[in-house]
Specification:
The protein has ten helices and no strands. By secondary structure, it is an all-alpha fold.
């Protein structure tokens, strides 16, 4: 025979040790095995990288993108479990798949994969992930609160908002909480807490008007219009007709100015 292996029957015992399974004279070279393992994983990693680089867009290609991102997640699982690649691949793949689902407006599936990515990232960072300034955590938290809001899970959304505020303490800027404050105002409005919702909306409106919210002109127009709409609803529900008319007038002036520009 080309290679004769002498097997050690100690594998039948509870105290079986893998390094004793073969005769030492014919045991595999560890470095050779590692090289072979790396070589086998290279085509899988290449395909993963190609799938990861594909941009997620809305439209006709979005359903195909979901299938591609499912494939990417499957590759990530193989690479991390069978070839010992970094677990960050799994976090990345879950985020990509969540974004693909979100582009298709499959918010429940998107939420599940954002949550899975967040859980895996927390395990990687240890038992106290909030002590680590991590932009990925902030991004995931923002996606989770946005998706749970779209699913009308308002109490869960508030929980993520409080977590976001906690994570953002070390990276606070004038624009950092603009979007999150807007979501919180809408959640509070939906839950009937119009006073705090009004305060948050008024503050966001001031940020837009003073240019403190770093957003494009088109986004600024949309944000103002939405804020005016919510403020009008709040004042109308409170039967504060004077303020409702004032907001309505400001909204109309805002539209007229946009049309002139």
């Amino acid at each position: 025979p080309i290679c004769s292996l002498t097997y050690n029957t100690s594998f039948m015992d509870d105290n079986y040790n893998l390094k004793n399974a073969y005769n030492p004279q014919t045991s595999f070279n560890l470095s050779f095995m590692q090289s072979a393992k790396q070589a086998l994983s290279e085509p899988l990693l290449k395909e993963y990288t190609e799938l990861n680089s594909q941009q997620i867009t809305e439209g006709k290609q979005s359903k195909q993108q979901v299938q591609q991102k499912i494939r990417q997640l499957a590759l990530a699982k193989i690479l991390t479990t069978s070839y010992d690649h970094d677990r960050e691949l799994l976090v990345e793949a879950h985020i990509q798949l969540a974004q693909a689902y979100a582009a298709n407006e499959h918010h429940e599936q998107a939420y599940e994969h954002y949550k899975e990515a967040s859980d895996k990232l927390s395990l990687m960072l240890g038992e106290t992930p909030r002590t680590t300034n991590n932009e990925i955590q902030l991004m995931l938290c923002e996606h989770l609160l946005s998706t749970s809001f779209k699913l009308k899970n308002y109490h869960q959304t508030l929980s993520y908002i409080h977590e976001y505020y906690s994570l953002a303490q070390d990276v606070e800027t004038d624009n950092a909480r603009f979007y999150v404050d807007g979501v919180k105002a809408r959640v509070l409005y939906a839950l009937g807490d119009t006073r705090e919702a009004e305060a948050l909306l008024a503050d966001n409106l001031s940020r837009v008007e003073q240019g403190k919210a770093v957003i494009s002109d088109s986004a600024s127009f949309t944000q103002k219009a939405e804020i005016y709409n919510y403020l009008y609803k709040i004042y109308k529900s409170e039967k504060n007709h004077m303020k409702a008319l004032e907001v309505l007038a400001r909204s109309l002036a805002h539209i007229e100015q946009a049309l002139r520009n």
